[in-house]
Amino acid sequence: MAQVVERPVYHEGDTWTYRHASGPTTGRPGGTFYSTQTKTITRMLDGEFELATEMVSEKGEKTTGVELSSLNFNDFAQPPAPAARVEIMAWMWPVEPGKTWRYDVPVRTGTETWEAAVLGWEDVEVPAGKFRTLKVERNLLGALQGSYGRRVTVWYSPDAKVNVRVKYDAMYRTYTITNAMRELISYRLR
């Protein structure tokens, strides 16, 4: 497999379904919570695409919505008015093992700075099958005296054109306060 991965090309009708598992987390009784989320590209726009989303909780409660993603596979943030919408540069194409970059995320209290590092190729198995992936770790910089940290680890598959696994971690001192995993169940590309 080539070492360098170019930006994926998406099409209307591309669909991905994920299973989310959240917990256990400190101070939250009840164990792990599950949900299923399906995302389908409904419209290709200039520089971005629209996704219809459907989330179904483990209790069968359904929530639908619409999201926008840039053609770079990045989300957008909407800072307070009159500031314009900002692309969160979580992906900087092309990517290859060893590449690193920093990006800013506007939040209510200002800006968070994250650092992404492409750790290398890794074979992973998720409910949708086995995939050759690029493992990318994203860490929040500037934690308060090292007592609080957040990390997002993704396993990106060029074949599925998405992250087939995403692991979210947040720590406060020695306690894990967020522990969530999202894995690809199925996908269909046009």
Comma- or semicolon-separated keywords:
YmcC-like fold
Shape: globular
What would CATH call the class? Mainly Beta
Helix content: under 10%
Q: Catalogue the unreliable spans.
A: none
CATH third-level topology: YmcC-like fold
Give the strand order of the largest sheet, numbering strands 1, 2, ... along the chain.
4-3-2-1-12-11-10-9-8-7
Question: What do these coordinates show?
Answer:
By secondary structure, this protein is mainly β. The protein has a single domain (15-188), classed as YmcC-like fold (Beta Barrel). Helix content is 0%, strand content 61%. It is built from no helices and 12 strands. The protein has strands at 15-22, 33-45, 48-57, 62-70, 76-77, 86-87, 100-107, 110-126, 129-140, 148-157, 162-172, 175-188. It has a 10-stranded antiparallel β-sheet, with no helix packed on it. Strands 5-6 form a two-stranded antiparallel ribbon. Strand 2 (33-45) and strand 3 form a beta hairpin. The protein is globular, with a radius of gyration of 17 Å. The model has no long low-confidence stretch (mean pLDDT 87).
